Amino acid sequence: MATLSEASGMSGLEFMRAVMTGKLPPPPIMSTIGITGGEVAEGRAVFAGEAGEFLYNPIGVVHAGFAMTILDSAMGCAVHTTLALGERYTTLETKVNFVRAITAETGPVRAEGVVVHRGGRVATAEGKLIAESSGKLLAHGTSTCLVIPR
């Protein structure tokens, strides 16, 4: 909750940089799922992660929620970097296409989110989840966010 109070005095990009550099603590979801921050720039956010067996579903592969979560984080945080002081956002819709199974053998993955459109009230972003070792696409998606004045 301390992180949230700090956010009110920063632009979206300033806030994201503070989290990525460790000046502010990351949100709890990152440690729960095993996501680490990578880099941010205006309209762009990159996250890394590595799935383990603790994320397996009953059919023996990583649950789709892992890919969905890391992509949602990258796309949402890309939008977050465009926020002015006094703005916030919420996700209205996220769609993800899963194109390859993820297993513990996949190794480290990288999710990159990029803003496609930033309007006054609506922002859209797209993201890709890539296996670091092979460079293969694992999943890709889009997100629509509502920009809200504080």
- How many domains, in number, for the residues? 1
Give the overall silhouette: globular
What is the strand arrangement across the widest sheet? 1-2-4-5-6-3
Query: Spans with pLDDT under 50 lasting ≥5 residues?
Result: none
- How do the SSEs run, as a string of H and E? HHHEEHEEEE
- The total count of strands amounts to 6
* Shape-level CATH architecture: Roll
Distance between the termini: 17 Å
The name CATH uses for the topology is Thiol Ester Dehydrase, Chain A
Helix content: 25-40%
Q: What fraction of residues sit in β-strands?
A: 35-45%
Q: What's the CATH class label?
A: Alpha Beta
CATH H level: which superfamily?
Answer: Hotdog Thioesterase
The largest β sheet comes out as:
6 strands, antiparallel
| Structural category | alpha+beta
Q: What is the radius of gyration computed over CA atoms, rounded to a whole number of angstroms?
A: 15 Å
